[in-house]
Structures are given as structure tokens and as C-alpha cells.
Amino acid sequence: MIRFIILMLFCITNVANANGNAVPDTMAERVKACTICHNAEGKAGRDAYYPRIAGKPQGYIFNQLRNFRDGRRYYHAMAILLENMSDEYLREMAQYFSSLQLPYPHPEQIQMLPEEIELARHLVYSGYPERNIPACSACHGDILMGVEPAIPGLVGLSRAYITAQLGGWRNGGIMRIQTSDCMSEIANQLTENEVNAVAKWLANQSVSGKPGSFNELSPELVDRCSQTILEHGGAE
Amino acid sequence: MRHGVMIFSVIISYWRNITLPWICGILLASVLLAMPGKVMAGAAEDPGVVDAVDYGAYLARVGNCMGCHTTKGGQPFAGGRRLSTSFGVFITPNITPDKETGIGLWNQQDFWQALHQGKSRDGRLLYPAFPYTEYTKVTRQDADAIFAYLQSLPPVSQANPAHDIFFPYNSRALLAVWRTLYFKEGVYEPDQSKSTAWNRGAYLVQGLGHCNACHTTRNMLGASQDNALAGGQIMGMNWYAPSLSSHLEAGSGDWEIEEIAALLTTGITERAVASGPMATVVRQSLQYLSQEDVLAMSTYLKSLTENDTGNAPGVHFSVISGSLRRHLELGGKIYREYCQECHGADGKGAPGIYPALAGNRGVVMDSPLNVIRSVLNGGYPATTAGNPRPYGMPPFQQILRNEEVALVVSYIRNAWGNRASLVRALDVDQGKGGDD
């Protein structure tokens, strides 16, 4: 029996050697299917809506991966790619991307009228409580880098991506099943001008700092967005 | 997953020049045989002893009831999944024990009637989108166990929309005619000349596993002609389920039984990976099979190629002309830029991680549909206990145009000794869509 086992080990070693194309046993190698679009630096392709995912809060990335897989958030390519993936593996991928510390791209330089800038700043830092629109910073953090564990940052993204996402929230194209989601309520309140202004302004901001902590959120916003923050595996 | 579920859209490759894995496979098999205790450890226990609910849960996994009777992201077994076919859209029913919207009012006999005779509780004839043409082979004992399990589930109140079936298929009278022509009622009858394992495998493959729901060519009326598992376009899905009885496609006659079993339960082996709908079947169903059952299934599947007189791949190699070579070289350029890093300059991939393309039957099959779809959509093999952290393939339709996909697919179908038909941009276009 011992001879047998030695022979087996010998064979296994040889199989490994026979494998001419050595494949690194790393997460970086395992997520190559992701990084071809969300490329290795995690930057958004300027010509398409592939957002940077490096450094985003882990819970946020994990939620999105599960939402794509389970059809709550719809994007065909992501749905097919993730179809047969376990929660455990998606969590590991989320952790990997979240931990990537990579330099951010330079901000865009989009011309804006002074009144557009004013409108955007008002939305971002004050909101319109009378229209039930909270300030972006109230949830996404003072420096708009997101809040652990599940709220994404808003800077370091392209205008095209932000515009498309807000449009998606407004017409229900992002979260097909969660119709009562807080972000879709907010986006539905925004006018076209407001969407354009805020998308341009956000894309023009340079990026610094890290996601904030969950404790910074006001209880009423946690309550309003509990579905996003808690139910889908955010805070554990 | 639509319609039937057990599909072997398996990408398979040969490494004729690497013999060591084979020797190891045989050695491993010998070790396993020398340790019967290990082999039997995960085997299904005697249903008479085990609680019927547990046994029913196991059988429901084998039949992958949940696969069709659950909509994406929805409540398990509550139905609502849309199965788009050329006859219309079928909506799978709620089979939780909810009295209003599920099967809470059903009894064992009603369930048996559905599974065995294809009739609903009220006697209505069921459409064969529910594969009772296969389930009729399931024994009464197994049917009762599945029913006991389904009745033990938490009831989910979910009313699903009605089917939307095109004229004239919406006539249930026509269904009666169809049944006379194509439905043969009857529990599986063992072939006394074969082994117990072979018969158990045949019972699972032909019955509960309903492999034939996908791995078959259907006629104009949607009927499968036989039980040969000879492959065909999957109804309502843009995938080709390869033949399990042909050496040219996914026949496994020259595989070790253990290797077939490994592919079914882990979704990947040194020379093959289950992709597309088959990966889903592995994840949802096959990975949970007992060792005894999966070996039995493999024994039966291996025997399917016995009557295959088709030529082995690699026999009819024609010479490639200069102009064809130049055309293929356009694809070669794309290959080197996007594919070579993983699949290798020699097309041999990395066994168990990135499939080889050289000699891969999935690549050179007559139907280029699956390889086109693999390039367009990419994907990860199913995560299973045996392969919990798979490596993946990018969805190249995000990057390459149809023309470029056609060139690179034509190239890999004709490089490293592979020979198969060229692919046009139109073929690539037809490989798009057909998903949920």
C-alpha cells in the first residue's frame, strides 16, 4: 500500500509538471474574467460603463455580485458570468477587489456653468429635504468615498457611468425586483438637469481618502435604506 | 435552465501525448477499488431505513425539481420560471404545499398521476414541458418519497401566471393525440443481462435525471424520438446538448468510470469542463449525488457509446490551402492577443483549470454553437465541493465584434490538428441571446 501511495505521489507530481502552462494559484488569476473589462487597475474604461471596483466597500461589491447572479440587478454579461457561483466564492472575490489599493484615475475635466456647479453642490451636500431627497453625502460619506460595509463611493467614476446608473435607478432598470429600494425613490425625484449636473460634478472631483464607517450614518437613513444596507449581507 | 435539465454540454479534450494522467487515473481507480469502504461512504442508504422526507429531498436533487420550479432569485419550488419554447411560453407551477397556489391539496396518488401519467390532479393532461415522458420511469416508492419531501416544505403563497401557448398547441385535445404518438407510460424495467450498477444508472439517467429532455433531437411536435441521448439543440435554449452516445461529441466510452463521475460531481476534470446549462445542472443537482449513484450513472453513460461506429475524431484531415491558411491566420492573430495567455500557444490549456482547445471535441463538434457561446459569454465553471474556486473566462462579446469572434472560432477549430467547419459572423450573431 505504501508503495502504491508513493507511486501515486510520483504521478501527481508528474501531472503537475506535464502541465506546461503554469497557472498562478492567486485571486488575481481567478478574476481575470472580471479584470478584462474592470481592468487590472480597476479603472473604468472611458468608452464604456465598466466601473472601477477596486477599493469599494466589500459588502457593496458582494451585494452587487449576488444581485447580478440572482437577477435583482440586471446586466446580461454579469448575469451569465456569475450564474453558477457560490456565495462563498463571490464573497472572496468581493474581499479581493475591496482590498486592492490602486491609484485613482485623474478626474474628468467637464465644462460646467456656475449654476450647474451650485445645483450639484446643493444636491451633494444639502439635498432637498422638502422633496425627500437627502444629501448624497449623508449616505455616501462626507468625502463621497462610500461607507462600509455596503454603500459605494461616488467619486472616481466616469460621468457616463453615473448618468447611466441614475437613469437605471429612475426607470427601474437596475434593481428590477426591489422596487421599493431607497435609491430608486431618490433617483425618481431628480430632474434631468439635476442628474446631468451631479454626474458632471462627481466625475470632475479628484479622489482621496477611504470609505467612512457605518456609525456615521444617521439612524433614519439606515432605516430608509435598510434593505440595501442590511438585508443583503452588508453589516454582519 | 429551461425545459429539461440534464444536459451534457461538456467541453472535452484529448491529450493523446500525455499518458501519465491516464496511468494515474487507473492507479487512483485501483486504490478506490481497494478501499470499498471509502467508495460506499457517501452512498444513499436504504430508503426503507431513512426517513422518507430525507430520501425524497435527495431524489428531488437528482431530478433537479428546483431547477425549473424556481424563478431566478425567487422562492425555492414556488415556480414562476418562464420556459420559452417554439410552442409558446410555459410558466412552471408552484409545487410548495400552499393550499391555494401550490400543491397543498394534493395527495400521493395525485402526485403519482402527474409524474407517472402526465395528468394533473383534476385529470387535465399536462404539457410535456414537464418531462413526465421521462419521469414515468420513476418507481412509486421514489415518487412517494419526493412527494413527502415537497409536502414538508414551507408553503409559499405565490400565484404564477398561466402558460401562454400558441395556437394550435394550446388545444389539450391535440395533446391527447400527441400522447398516443409519443408517450409510453411505464416504470423502468431492469435489463437482467446488465449489472446492478448499470441498471441503477439507466434508471437515473432515463428517469428522474431526465437527461433525454435536452440531449436529444426533437421532431416538429417537440417529441424526442428515442432514448439514445444522441444530442440536439436544446428546446428553448440557445445551446446544443452534445450526443452522449457518439465518440465525436460527448460520448464517454473511452473514459474511466471514475473520471466520468468526477466530471458529473465537480464539473471539471483534467480534460473536460461542464459549461453553459450543464454547469448549472452540476451545481444544482449532480454535485449532490451519492458516490454510489454517480458511479452507477457513469457506468451507464459509458456504455452508451457501445454501438457507436462513427469515426474517431482526427481521422479526416484535409489539407489546408494557402488562401484558407491566410484567412485562419487573421483569427490566429486575435487568438494570440486574447486567448493564448490562458489556453496556450499549443492550445493545450492548463488541465483542470483552463480547458485545452487542441483536440477538444466541444470545439470541433459539427455544431459550432457552444464554442461560439463560450467565446461570447465566457463564464465560470460551477462552484462545487470539488472545485470551489474555479478560474473563469471573460465574456468576449464585450470586446470583440461578431466578425472577430467568427475569425478566432474558425481558427481554433482548425489549429493544432483540429479540423472543423469555418464560422461566419452570421453564425456568431445567431449564437447571441436565448437567455433569460
Automatic annotation (TrEMBL), chain A:
Keyword Metal-binding recorded: yes
PTM section of the record: Binds 2 heme c groups covalently per subunit.
UniProtKB keywords: Heme, Iron, Metal-binding, Signal
Residues spanning the signal sequence: 1-18
Residues the record lists as binding heme c 1: C34, C37, H38, M78
UniProt keyword Heme present: yes
Domain Cytochrome c: 15-101, 122-206
GO cellular component terms attached to this protein's record: periplasmic space
Record-level Gene Ontology MF annotations: electron transfer activity; heme binding; iron ion binding
Binding residue positions for heme c 2: C136, C139, H140, M183
Matching Gene3D superfamilies: Cytochrome c-like domain
Protein name per UniProt: Cytochrome c553
UniProtKB/TrEMBL annotation, chain B:
UniProt keyword terms in alphabetical order: Heme, Iron, Metal-binding
GO CC terms in record: membrane
Domain annotation Cytochrome c: ranges: 51-154, 196-305, 326-416
Annotated cofactor note: Binds 3 heme c groups covalently per subunit.
Binding residues for heme c 3: C339, C342, H343
Transmembrane segments: none
PROSITE patterns the UniProt entry points to: CYTC
Domain of life: Bacteria
Parts forming coiled coils: none
Any GO MF annotation of the entry: iron ion binding
Pfam families: Cytochrom_C (PF00034)
InterPro entries reported in the protein's UniProt record: Cyt_c-like_dom, Cyt_c-like_dom_sf, Cytochrome_c-type_DH, Membr-bd_ADH_cyt_c
Record-given protein name: Cytochrome c, mono-and diheme variants
Source lineage: Bacteria, Pseudomonadati, Pseudomonadota, Betaproteobacteria, Nitrosomonadales
